[in-house]
Amino acid sequence: MTDPVVSAMVFYALATFTLVAAGFVALSNNIVHSAFALFATLFGMAGLYAFLSADLLAIVQMLVYVGGISVLVLFAVMLTSGLDDSRHSNSTTRLAGGIAVLLAVAAAAFVAASAVPSGTESAITPMTALIGDALLGRFVLPFEVVSVVLLAALLGGVTLARGVKGGDR
Amino acid sequence: MTVGLPQYLVVSGVLLALGLFTIVTRKNAVAILMGVELVLNAGLLNLVAFSRFGGGLDGQVFALFGIVLAAAEAVVALAIVLQVVRAQRSVDASKASDLKE
């Protein structure tokens, strides 16, 4: 196995990167910066998945989240925000309530995590073939349902984005 | 200093807290959607971490489904935001209180 000190350092580096980027998403005053910080957060999450020996999930995260969703979010940012004032385009409101939620949830997470036993780490194995077997075996019904959901989202996205013309429908 | 399940849960919890903070404090609807993505990622990280530390394969399969559903959610939500912006000339979520023009 790998050296525990080195692997811990890699983990803390990945976790710090992810959380700092997420902090930028939460706190930046510029929504374009927020969008690119979301990009970095999702990238760091892919690293954490790889570190958890979820190789297929890391690749899927890169393809779907980093390659798809964050580009979609960037498009939405560019299309919607009046970018003439992008430095103040992401104003905040209800800051006190937000800070209260932040502290409460983070404290609850620390308390809950400290009560969880450390667990035994399973051996690192290639996961892709096993996940493929599971998807077409035990999980074949959710797999098919998800395909219907994707079709519905595709049609719904096209219908919504095209818009309703006049009052004729 | 070995990395176990609690460390991953702390990372996930802080990510959840930052996502909720974003949802609560932002005015911009697209920024609120970014907060939703953070919350979803926190949940997925929990699934994968529990799968790694003694849970078997199921957590990873459900994380895969979660990613797919997050993609569908992002598509529909961003289409709705674009329509709201087209109708109301504003991306401020608190101003979008009308169902119809």
Keywords, please?
heterodimer; A: 169 residues; mainly alpha; Four Helix Bundle (Hemerythrin (Met), subunit A); 73% helix; globular; B: 101 residues; Helix Hairpins; 3 helices; elongated
What can you tell me about this protein's structure?
The complex is a heterodimer of chains A (169) and B (101). With 169 residues, chain A is an all-alpha fold. Chain A has one domain (4-83, 95-162): Up-down Bundle (Four Helix Bundle (Hemerythrin (Met), subunit A)), CATH 1.20.120. Chain A contains 6 helices and no strands. In chain A, helix 1 (4-27) packs antiparallel against helix 2 (31-51) and helix 2 runs antiparallel to helix 3. Chain A is globular. The termini of chain A are far apart. The mean pLDDT of chain A is 85. Chain B is mainly α. Chain B has one domain (5-95): Helix Hairpins, CATH 1.10.287.3510. Helix content of chain B is 78%, strand content 0%. In chain B, helix 2 (29-55) packs antiparallel against helix 3 (58-88). The chains are: A mainly alpha (169), B mainly alpha (101). At the A-B interface, helix 1, helix 2, helix 3, helix 4 and helix 5 of A face helix 1, helix 2 and helix 3 of B.
